[in-house]
Design goal:
- InterPro entries: Ald_DH/histidinol_DH, Ald_DH_C, Ald_DH_CS_CYS, Ald_DH_N, Aldehyde_DH_dom, MeMal-semiAld_DH.
- It is an enzyme of class 1 (oxidoreductase).
- The protein is of the alpha/beta class.
- The protein has 16 helices and 23 strands.
- Strand 2 and strand 3 form a beta hairpin.
- Helix 2 runs antiparallel to helix 4, helix 4 runs parallel beside helix 6 and helix 10 packs across helix 11.
- The longest helix has 20 residues.
- It is globular and about 90 Å long.
- It binds nicotinamide-adenine-dinucleotide.
């Protein structure tokens, strides 16, 4: 059985721990690899490698750092298909979707290639007589990223291109469910000329994570994952004096107004609910159908749900792959059952989904649940599967109020032809990322990504300008180069402008 190793100080290593976890191919349901689970000594080794690499990397000129980023961008572009295959084999998503996530990660690398402009400081001439003030930003030191299973390449790339471009060194703790893409990415960094120790990967579970959260040599933690863990990470790392950004789970609502083009809305709603088997933090999992739009959108989206080609991620023509594990499959099937028990209508039932030749795969078919109310489990739980719940509302204001009553605030969308309703929506919802006739409004790399409420703990969003701000801290210098005429103006008064 292939063993997925750590990557520390520029080479693969088995480290000290002999604990492992199985890695599955979700399409076949078979274990394909084992991944090491680090103990504290392994994490210490990764942090020590990053700490050793920091002085030289942080002092490397911005232009030399940028050259490495450009080389990495070229290599990742060349090897995108290979990274996508690793993702499909361990996550299950279809190849085109895996390629899409590599592409969105690449865009963050491209953003980070602009680091010379992004790190420019301010300069104010002669703020007081013969005194100038200027500011610049410095890297923090060793920073760590802890990432979820659902985007094994893109989510780490929300973090490390920016962190490394800013002059930090990085320890990545990827999801133990699909760990291989991060190791291939580490090899590409090395080929691009990144010095050993600047980017390290340590695989593991809670033990590895807790060691990072408590480690005195780790300056900042970026986390993406479920809300209970995000909250825990934020509390524990903050208590240890670290800078933390912890992105959590989501329940993303899409409002469909009666004036929307129903076919357009149904196409996009289906893609956003069932794409990647619903395992996207920006998946639309709740449709809020307003007034007369309801029956029409349920009928149209149900037609699309029945037509989705479910299959292995590598099989030609597959539009939707399996979910990540047997446990995830069982949990999703159980939740659909609660919807039925609690009085919702199962308009399309994906519970009996079987794919020929892949009978042991972790498949769940696209499911549409109508007449959902806000007390039901299917509404309150983040299902993280290909399940769309439809809630009905009478007005756009009622729909906005429903979104605002939800504890999450990651993404949301509206389908409408009314500019007035769209504007009321964009100003009224308490959500971080908003789509207007755009179902999955993931901001481009040069904006920052992040939700509100239980979808983000900490104040800085990832990548874009907030990413640069998160991974650096400011210095403001007030300088005078006096012409010494021996008449000193030193005073015991608090300094005021002269
Ligand atoms: P998860 O919270 O189970 O795991 C995320 C990371 O935390 C993994 O690296 C895991 O090893 C680690 N971890 C798990 N349990 C831990 C514990 N008890 N203590 C310390 N560390 C622990 O999340 P997941 O199932 O891998 O990913 C799916 C979740 O991620 C969903 O809730 C999804 O919404 C969320 N997500 C959010 C965003 C966002 O941008 N807000 C993006 C992607 C995924």
């Amino acid at each position: 059985m292939a063993l997925v190793q750590h990557w520390i100080a520029g080479k693969p290593t088995t480290g000290r721990s002999d604990r492992t976890a199985p890695v599955f191919d979700p399409a076949t349901g078979q274990q394909t690899k084992e991944v090491l689970l680090a103990d504290a000594v392994d994490v210490d080794a990764a942090v020590a490698a990053a700490k050793d690499a920091f002085p030289a990397w942080s002092q490397t000129s911005i232009s030399k750092r940028t050259k490495v980023l450009f080389a990495f961008r070229e290599l990742l572009n060349q090897h995108a298909a290979e990274v996508a295959e690793l993702i499909t084999d361990e996550h299950g998503k279809v190849l085109s979707d895996a390629l899409g996530e590599v592409q969105r990660g690449l865009e963050v690398v491209e953003f980070a290639c602009g680091i010379p402009s992004l790190l420019k400081g301010d300069y104010s001439d002669n703020v007081s007589s013969d005194v100038d003030t200027f500011s610049f930003r410095e890297p923090l030191g060793v920073v760590a990223g802890i990432t979820p299973f659902n985007f094994p390449a893109m989510v780490p790339m929300w973090m490390f291109p920016v962190a490394i471009a800013c002059g930090n060194t990085f320890v990545l703790k990827p999801s133990e469910r699909d760990p291989s893409a991060s190791i291939r990415i580490a090899e590409l960094w090395q080929e691009a000329g990144l010095p050993d120790g600047v980017f390290n990967v340590v695989h593991g579970d809670k033990l590895a994570v807790d060691t990072l959260l408590d480690h005195e040599d780790v300056a900042a933690i970026s986390f993406v994952g479920s809300t209970p863990i995000a909250k825990y990470i934020h509390e524990r790392a903050s208590a240890n004096g670290k800078r933390v950004q912890a992105l959590g789970g989501a329940k993303n609502h899409a409002i469909i107004l009666p004036d929307a083009d129903i076919d357009f809305a149904a196409d996009h709603l289906a893609a956003a609910a069932f794409g990647s088997a619903g395992e996207r933090c920006m998946a639309l999992s709740a449709a809020v159908a307003v007034g007369s739009a309801a029956d029409a959108i349920v009928a149209a989206v149900s037609d699309r749900a029945r037509a989705v080609k479910v299959g292995a991620g590598r099989a030609d023509g597959s539009e939707m792959g399996p979910v990540v594990t047997k446990q995830a499959q069982e949990r999703i099937l159980g939740l659909i059952g609660t919807g039925e028990q609690q009085g919702a209508t199962i308009a399309v039932d994906g519970r009996d989904c079987s794919v020929e030749g892949y009978e042991d795969g972790f498949f769940v078919g696209p499911t549409v649940i109508d007449q959902v109310s806000t007390e039901m489990d299917v509404y309150n739980e983040e299902i993280f599967g290909p399940v769309l719940s439809v809630v009905r509302a009478d007005t756009v204001d009622e729909a906005i109020a429903l979104i605002n009553a939800n504890p999450y605030g990651n993404g949301t969308a509206i389908f409408t032809n009314s500019g007035e309703a769209a504007r009321r929506f964009q100003r009224g919802v308490h959500v971080g990322m908003i789509g207007i006739n755009v179902p999955v409004p993931v901001p481009m790399a040069f904006y920052s990504f992040g939700g509100w409420k239980a979808s983000l703990f900490g104040d800085k969003h990832v990548h874009g300008p907030e990413g640069v701000s998160f991974y650096t801290r400011a210095k403001v210098v007030t300088a005078r180069w006096p012409h010494v005429d021996h008449a000193s103006d030193a005073s015991f008064h608090f300094p005021t402008a002269k």
